[in-house]
């Protein structure tokens, strides 16, 4: 049975009608304001740019920045998001990209703190920028998948 059939009420899983799962999934998705999550992740780039260029008094701890579980999106992913979307391809991509996003943000902070500002900017303008786009794209794809039902 394909993913689409799961939401058409043609089967049961774990004793719950799959049509009901679509309702639960929509509710879980509403718990996360995707537009705010997108803006928050786009703002990371601006915050890190200002930090690396010495135009910010913000203090970053690489160990904290590295964690993908403490931001609002990370909390949602670990909770209701995982409960409802664990096997949805866009969710799996979101989890992977979000984790890498935080890892590379931490690398940018570490490089800057070590005086390797040029390397930090290269990661910021390269891999980090790409991952930021991928997180946003996965969020939007997840929204589209749920809205199809």
Structure description:
With 149 residues, the protein is an all-alpha fold. It has one domain (34-147): Aspartate receptor, ligand-binding domain (Four Helix Bundle (Hemerythrin (Met), subunit A), Up-down Bundle). 74% of the residues lie in helices and 3% in strands. It has 7 helices and 2 strands. It has helices at residues 3-6, 18-31, 34-52, 62-65, 72-85, 89-113, 117-147; strands at 12-13, 16-17. A two-stranded antiparallel ribbon has the order 1-2. Helix 3 runs antiparallel to helix 7 (117-147) and helix 6 (89-113) packs antiparallel against helix 7 (117-147). The protein is elongated and about 50 Å long.
Task: Sketch the topology as an H/E string, one letter per element.
Answer: HEEHHHHHH
Tell me the name of the CATH homologous superfamily: Aspartate receptor, ligand-binding domain
Radius of gyration: 18 Å
Largest sheet: 2 strands, antiparallel
Give the integer mean of the pLDDT values: 82
Number of contiguous helices: 7
Distance between the termini: 16 Å
The name of the CATH topology is Four Helix Bundle (Hemerythrin (Met), subunit A)
Write the layout of secondary structure elements.
Elements: H1 3-6, E1 12-13, E2 16-17, H2 18-31, H3 34-52, H4 62-65, H5 72-85, H6 89-113, H7 117-147
Antiparallel strand pairs: 1-2
Please supply descriptive tags for the structure shown above.
2 strands; 149 residues; elongated; Four Helix Bundle (Hemerythrin (Met), subunit A); single chain; disordered N terminus; 7 helices
Structure in a nutshell:
This protein is mostly helical. The protein has helices at residues 3-6, 18-31, 34-52, 62-65, 72-85, 89-113, 117-147, and strands at residues 12-13, 16-17.
């Amino acid at each position: 049975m394909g993913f689409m059939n799961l939401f058409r009420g043609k089967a049961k899983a774990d004793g719950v009608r799959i049509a009901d799962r679509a309702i639960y999934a929509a509710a879980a998705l509403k718990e996360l304001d995707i537009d705010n999550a997108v803006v928050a992740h786009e703002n990371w780039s601006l915050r890190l740019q200002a930090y690396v260029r010495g135009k910010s008094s913000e203090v970053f701890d690489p160990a904290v920045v590295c964690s993908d579980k403490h931001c609002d999106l990370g909390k949602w992913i670990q909770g209701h998001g995982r409960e409802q979307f664990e096997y949805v391809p866009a969710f799996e991509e979101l989890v992977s990209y979000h984790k890498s996003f935080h890892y590379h943000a931490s690398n940018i902070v570490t490089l800057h703190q070590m005086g390797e500002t040029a390397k930090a900017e290269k990661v910021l303008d390269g891999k980090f920028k790409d991952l930021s786009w991928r997180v946003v794209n996965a969020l939007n794809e997840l929204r589209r998948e749920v809205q199809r039902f």
